[in-house]
Amino acid sequence: MGEPVTPGASCPGTFARAWAKAVSGTSYLPMTQAQLEEMLQRLTHRLAAALRAEPFDPRVGHQVGAELVAAHIASAEGLGRTVEVIQLRLLRDLGLVGDDISDRLARLLATVTTGYARALRDRTLDEQESIRRAAMVARVQAERALRDSESRFRHQATHDPLTDLPNRTLFTDRLAAAIAVPGRGADRVGVCFLDLDRFKVVNDSLGHQVGDALLVQVAQRLRRALGDHLVARLGGDEFVILVERTGGTDDVVEAAEAALAAVSEPALVDGHELSVTASVGIVERPVAGTTPGELMRAADSTLHWAKAAGGARWALFDPARHRTELARYALSAAIPAALDRGEFFLDYQPLTSLRDGTLLGVEALVRWRHPELGVLSPGSFIGLAEETGLIVRLGGWVLAEACREAESWAAGGGPAPFVSVNLAVRQVNRPDLVQEVRGLLAQTGLPPERLQLEITESTMMSAGAEDPVRALRALNDLGVRIAIDDFGTGYSNLAYLRDLPVTELKMAGEFVTGLRAPQVDPASRTDERILASLVSLAHALDLTVTAEGVETADQADLLRAIGCDAGQGWHFGRPAPAARILEQIR
Amino acid sequence: MQRPDWAPDDIDVERPSVARMYDYYLGGSHNFAADRVAARAMVEAVPDAPLMAQANRAFLRRVVQYLGDSGIRQFLDIGSGIPTVGNVHEIAQRAAPDARVVYIDVDPVAVAHSQEILAGNRNAAVVREDLRRPAAILRHPEVTRLIDFSQPVAVMVVAVLHFIPHADHPEETLRTLRAALAPGSHLVLSQAGEDGRRRAEQVEAERVYRRTDNPLCIRSRAELTAFFDGFTLVDPGVVWVPQWRPETPESAEDAERAGFLGGVGRLDG
């Protein structure tokens, strides 16, 4: 095999251009046409050198094939066109001739295609592997994202978003666990209910943002102050602390005091220095026989005791007090049904003239014939009815019933007695009071002057506003009597006597009780003087005066001497059904 | 409660992905059997599909080169797909090593693959987000880490808009992106273009893509031009992609065969 001879001019540039043209468009080439030609020219030189080399080295062909693939001339078409253009033009364009030149070209082409196919195969395998790995990574990432979001979801479901404290759900779970599966020596458990005092004032005066920031600070302090005890936020400004494995109430009291101390440090919120206090209700008891619900309710009501006592303190659960409250609650809850079933009735107590002993009027007093507790006096349920607002319905019934009964009381010669009915604050404040009374009078036919409405001093003080005053004036204009009940025990504000259409003052029983023979008790003189002054004041204002709580004939004599108009009390008659009272005047 | 925005079930290699089909057209092997079945059906319906992908890829290369020469150093490539030969960061960083590139794609596999390619490249990142949530793209920490929106940015939405139907209001998406850009920024768009002569092929293509998560929405030159609202089109405007600043006159011949319309707009001060 001799040296190949070169008869014509060698034009590798021409060949490279033809090669570039052949392969362009067979696959995406990340280069310009010029860059492509430049690269192929380089490969052309290597092919030419290989054809001339002695001995023939097939590795050059492998490398050229691999380089084509690396340059992204990597498609079946790219290879086909390459083979074609080399076969057709390489020898001619390079001016290569020789005996064995076609053999060499065939061998070179074989190595180029081999190198090309190998490189393409490797590349395919690499890419397959890489995309599979990417799919796997993507899946792992997606699973992690899902797990993260699930744990975020769990956290959100069990934590308060504002303070990040555990919420009621988590607290209840932990409390339930502490009760259901107490560890060794963990047979007692304690709960503190904590509520900020007057938190609403912060919200109302500084805005909810400041309120929220304060809650966040309080939450942080509670968490810090209470160490291992679970602190949760129930909502609003209510927090709760779980004290597990207690040895007795002292352990929980200690936690409550730590909490109160933590809360009471002045807080700087948004430039405002806030001094807040809290109230805490404490329950501590054996886990046996209790439930989470019971503990929470007990702690909640104990919290209200601490609040009622003025706040900034803790209160300890007291089972007896709790029972009383529950009974009161049950009683107040039973009022509506009792009204429906007609369990209420009225007794009347005489209001007797001190001048001539005639029956001027009667005060209606409501009774409850309770199916289990027997007959209850107003003291045991009126307060409840006032707290719950049921007083409006109950008071309305009393008023209507009194009007209905009183209408039928025939006069025994003189004028028939008026009926005096107590009105609660809420009743006085109702906008339709006048309409209600007018309707009742029309319905029952009771003359207006035979109805007296008794209002306490405190009612007048709290009413204050214009509407109730206007209502009382309207009622007075109808002819209805207005009496101030329990006069002298409240503020005894004389100003409203000037403004209000009052007919009568009812002197509080306390003054009458003090009336004894002066030689026995010098203080009695004082009560007598007060009463005398009040009577003369009332008379000067054209008001009549009735003394309440008259128990003895001596008291009645003294009151008569002072000039008091009427008396009410056991001396004149105890409360009784209307029929019995009316018998006395017949 | 915020659910994760992608679930493991989304990574379904049995369902053709438009990103991996595109890789197949470009001669890549970053694809699975389902992708190849769909891509072959596409090639059968539209024999020029590989050529179209190549032409679009070449358009991308020329555009990035042009933008780099114009001084742009920040690139936001939305719908970047499977990173293959001639990625934006390769072209941009070859011209200017400090060029910053953020790729955005909705396909989790494409994103995972890009993460591997970009590992160790401090000036490039990939984010999984949806073009239809431009506000989320703009505030993504990786985007804000690399892209300074007070400086010119090239926003590239290349070969993606045909997957955004009218109902998704692409014009609003582009408006949101534009509002975030400083003067001197550029918008690059390309998408499958309407060609009356190929109506039958395009109907077939739409049928193929209905198998994927991304049905095809082919648009006219006027529609694509309207997307540049607020931008000044750089010469030669919206054209068949081989006609956009061709390197040789012959490479622009028979340009409508490339199937893609494209253009570049500049945001003037």
Low-confidence stretches of chain B: none
Shape category of chain A? rod-shaped
Task: Tell me what the CATH architecture of chain B is.
Answer: 3-Layer(aba) Sandwich
Count of helical stretches of chain A: 22
Number of distinct beta strands of chain B: 8
What proportion of the residues of chain A is helical, as a percent range?
55-70%
Q: Beta-strand level of the residues of chain A, as a percent range?
A: 15-25%
The end-to-end distance of chain A, rounded to whole angstroms, is 162 Å
Average pLDDT, all residues of chain B: 91
Domain GGDEF (chain A): 187-319
InterPro entries (chain A): Biofilm_reg_signaling, EAL_dom, EAL_sf, GGDEF_dom, Nucleotide_cyclase, Rev_trsase/Diguanyl_cyclase
Domain EAL (chain A): 328-586
Protein name (chain A): Diguanylate cyclase/phosphodiesterase
Topology:
The complex is a heterodimer of chains A (586) and B (269).
Chain A (H helix, E strand, L loop, with lengths): L11 H12 L9 H20 L6 H12 L5 H19 L6 H58 L9 H13 L7 E9 L2 H8 L1 H18 L4 E6 L2 E7 L4 H16 L2 E3 L2 E3 L3 E9 L5 H17 L4 E4 L2 H23 L2 E10 L5 E12 L3 E3 L5 H7 L2 H17 L10 E5 L2 H5 L3 H12 L6 E6 H7 L2 H13 L2 E7 L7 H5 L4 E4 L1 H5 L9 H18 L3 E4 L5 H10 L3 E2 L10 H8 L1
Parallel strand pairs in A: 6-7, 9-11, 11-12, 12-13, 13-14, 14-15, 15-16
Antiparallel strand pairs in A: 1-3, 1-6, 2-3, 4-5, 8-9, 8-16, 9-10
Helix pairs in contact in A: 1-2, 1-4, 2-3, 3-5, 4-5, 7-8, 8-9, 13-15, 15-17
Chain B lengths: L17 H8 L7 H13 L3 H21 L4 E5 L9 H8 L4 E6 L2 H11 L5 E5 L5 H6 L1 H6 L7 E5 L11 H10 L6 E7 L6 H11 L11 H6 L5 E2 L5 E2 L19 E7 L3
Parallel strand pairs in B: 1-2, 1-4, 2-3, 4-5
Antiparallel strand pairs in B: 5-8, 6-8, 7-8
